[in-house]
Structure formats: C-alpha cells, structure tokens
C-alpha cells in the first residue's frame, strides 16, 4: 500500500496527454501490490506452519505439584473399584513451598453420591479456576483439576496461554491440598457449589470422563489454551457428553468467573428439596445468598493442616468444614425427576 500511494502521488496530472505513461505506471503498481501481498501471505503461512508444528512434551523440568501423572487400575472382579496412583496430598507451608506427597487411593464408584464445583477467584470477578470434587457415601471427597503444567521457574500468563506456551495437566488431589493452598496460602477467594438434580449414572459417567482424559493425556500430551482448552470449558465439554441439552451453550462457559451464575440459571443450584427435608422452611436462595453461604475462606481460616497427616483425619475435617452451612443435595431418582426439578429451579431463579 505504501508503494501504491507513492506511485499514485507521482502519477501524471494530465491523464489525457500522458495516457500511455500512466498505463505503464498502473501496471507497475499492480505488480508491486501483488508481489507484496504474495510475500505477506507466504510469511504468514510459514508462521502458521511453524506454530502448528510445535508439539507438547511429556518430559520437562516440571514444578513439583504437576510433576506426576495420574494413572489408575480397575479391580478385575469389580469394575467400580478404581485404584488411583499419584493422587496429590501435599502439605503446603507457603504458597510456593510444600512437602510433596503422592498417594495411592482406592475408590468405589458405586458409592458416588454427588458433585461439587469449586470456583477459585484470583484475578477479579471474571476469571476463576474451576475444580470438581466427587463426594462418596462413606469416604472423603476426591477433587480433579485441569491445570497448566508449569516448568521450573515458569509463571502463568493468560495471554501466553493462547500461544502453545503451557502443556495441560490433570491433577487428582485431596481437598486439603488443592483447595487449602488456594484459600489459606494464596489468598484466593473460593466458593464451593453442590450441583443439584444429578442421577448417580451421570455422576459416574462424569467420573469416567476424567479417567478417559487421564488416559488421553498420558498417551499424548496436549496444550492448554486460555480460550478453548481451559479449566472450565473442558469440564463443560465432558459434562455435556453426560447431560446433553440439560446444559445449554452459554457465553459464561468462557467467562469462568460467571460459572456459578450459569449453574444457577439452568436450575443446577437448588436448595428447596434439601431444605424441605431438613424443615428449615427457607425459600430458594438468591444468587447473592449462594455466594455468601458458599464462600469457604472464612470457614477454614486458621485450619491446622499439619495435624493427623498419616491417619487422614485432617482431610476429612477440612472437607467437612468447607461444607458447613451448605445444603448437600441428594441424587435424583430418575432422569424425568431430575429434569423436572431442574426446570422448576430455573424458573424460580429467573
């Protein structure tokens, strides 16, 4: 365009007298423009080709908290019994210093009793890190988190996350590790929201989705992407495979800080059934009430995370404390019942 402008300014003023010279100049300027466009396109093609060719890696000098990959085995006599290896259970002393502990834990999927979503706000109201905790009838919860797999000395940048900078990692962890470090050491504001109107088959299918994701990442590493492959929308993609149209597409899937509002509007946050059972006599909570009651930082302020480490008592205590004052919904008996109750809750919220 610069060459075209120069040529245009130098063009003869008397077009009638200099038509032949002007025609030559026009041809020359068109050639220049085509050549520049071709060069520009070639450079872009080379850049895009180079960008696409960058492959994620399994072997780097990883930060300790993402250094291991979760694996699992099924009991050959009972496929519901899953033995998970490399479940993270770190003892956090500061936000950057922890005593590493990777454990093996066996869970029974037939005992799954519900799902909680934890949103951890670290950069204003629009951006949050999303974790999913699975509850069990007779055992402490187990949390899953999609995170960037940081290398030693590496820090997170949302902008860099668009450009194949960070590998994707799936962490399975005790809540006293992965939530405690956010509430008590990093100073992030965390909200724990129990998801209502789910059948056990849906909870089991979602758990299986995490196992499948672990298999895929172990077989072939993948890139984290700030927009398309982050901690929130990956969970949504998996949940839609389980629940289908009950979770409609919404812009808040990409604005992770507004995920609680999305769950509220689609009827997946509901206090009525549980509160009626407990005869509390309260109406369905507003979204403001949900944020107030599910804010867990005040509930675990001063929690002693170093006691009863070997017995696992503090893991149970931490998980119990963060659920104080939060109604835990029962599993739905049928799909028709779940959908009807969710629809009723959505109408009430709106």
TrEMBL record:
Protein name: Membrane protein
Ranges of residues in domain Lnb N-terminal periplasmic: 99-256
Low complexity biased stretches: 332-350
Residue segments, region Disordered: 1-24, 329-350
Keywords: Membrane, Transmembrane, Transmembrane helix
InterPro entries reported for this sequence: Lnb_N
Pfam family, one: Lnb_N
Transmembrane segments: 33-52
């Amino acid at each position: 365009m610069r060459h075209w402008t120069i040529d245009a300014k130098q063009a003869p003023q008397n077009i009638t007298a200099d038509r032949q010279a002007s025609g030559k100049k026009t041809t020359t300027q068109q050639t220049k423009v085509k050549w520049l466009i071709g060069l520009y396109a070639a450079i872009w093609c080379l850049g895009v080709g180079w960008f696409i060719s960058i492959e994620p890696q399994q072997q780097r000098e990883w930060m300790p908290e993402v250094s291991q990959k979760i694996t699992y085995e099924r009991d050959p006599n009972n496929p519901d019994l899953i033995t998970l290896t490399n479940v993270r259970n770190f003892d956090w002393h500061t936000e950057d210093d922890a005593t590493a502990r990777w454990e093996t834990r066996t869970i029974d999927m037939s005992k799954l009793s519900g799902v909680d979503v934890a949103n951890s706000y670290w950069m204003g109201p629009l951006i949050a890190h999303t974790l999913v905790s699975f509850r069990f009838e007779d055992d402490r919860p187990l949390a899953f988190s999609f995170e960037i797999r940081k290398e030693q000395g590496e820090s997170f940048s949302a902008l860099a996350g668009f450009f194949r900078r960070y590998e994707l990692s799936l962490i399975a962890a005790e809540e006293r590790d992965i939530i405690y470090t956010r509430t008590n050491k990093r100073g992030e504001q965390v909200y724990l929201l129990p998801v209502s109107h789910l059948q056990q088959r849906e909870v089991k299918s979602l758990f299986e989705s995490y196992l499948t994701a672990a298999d895929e990442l172990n077989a072939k590493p993948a890139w984290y992407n700030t927009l398309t492959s982050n901690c929130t929308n990956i969970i949504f993609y998996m949940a839609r495979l389980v629940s289908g149209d009950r979770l409609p597409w919404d812009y808040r899937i990409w604005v992770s800080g507004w995920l609680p509002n999305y769950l509220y509007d689609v009827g997946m946050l509901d206090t009525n059934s549980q509160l009626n059972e407990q005869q509390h006599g309260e109406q369905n909570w507003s979204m403001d009430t949900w944020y107030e009651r599910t804010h867990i930082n005040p509930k675990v302020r001063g929690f002693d995370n170093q006691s009863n480490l070997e017995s696992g008592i503090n893991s149970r205590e931490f998980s119990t404390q963060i659920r104080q004052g939060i109604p835990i919904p029962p599993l739905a008996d049928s799909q028709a019942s779940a959908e009807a109750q969710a629809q009723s809750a959505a109408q009430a919220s709106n």
